[in-house]
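INFO  loader      accepted 1 record
INFO  loader      residues=160
INFO  predictor   begin
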Amino acid sequence: MGQKTEQNNPKQKTDSTTNLVVATDGASKDNQNEENRRGAIGYIVEEKNEHVREHNELLGHDPEWTNNRAEYQAAIEALNWVLSNYDRASCSVRLLSDSELMIKQIQGEYSVNSPDIKPYFREVTDLVEEFSQFELEHQSQEPGNRIERADELAGLAFDD
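INFO  predictor   done
INFO  writer      dumping tokens
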């Protein structure tokens, strides 16, 4: 795919309930020029208010890397990482995103009309079902919050 940078400190799988906060962001650049369009993602995973993983990735050049598609891809990558590193049966996840569209689609408040987004939507909803407890929250970017950091990570992927 593209270049990846990451910082992580994975925890051992555990039998007690693990409360995680996952903040994701997807980005697209050069939207007016499909030939040069690029996508990137950034996410953080926190346990007990400490980052256990920060990740960003350039998704590469592809006319299909719209902002909405990148937002879903960020959630998919983050949730897959959590499933690979934590016990799904005892894991509580709170997913934060600045994409109101994605959050409301996953919650069932908005329908998914784009045929390009439907496979991503299905993958995220399948991943959500893997967790014993799952919560979604739309959160705007504000200085110093988790979404701002996820956005910063996605932006850094374009610079690599």
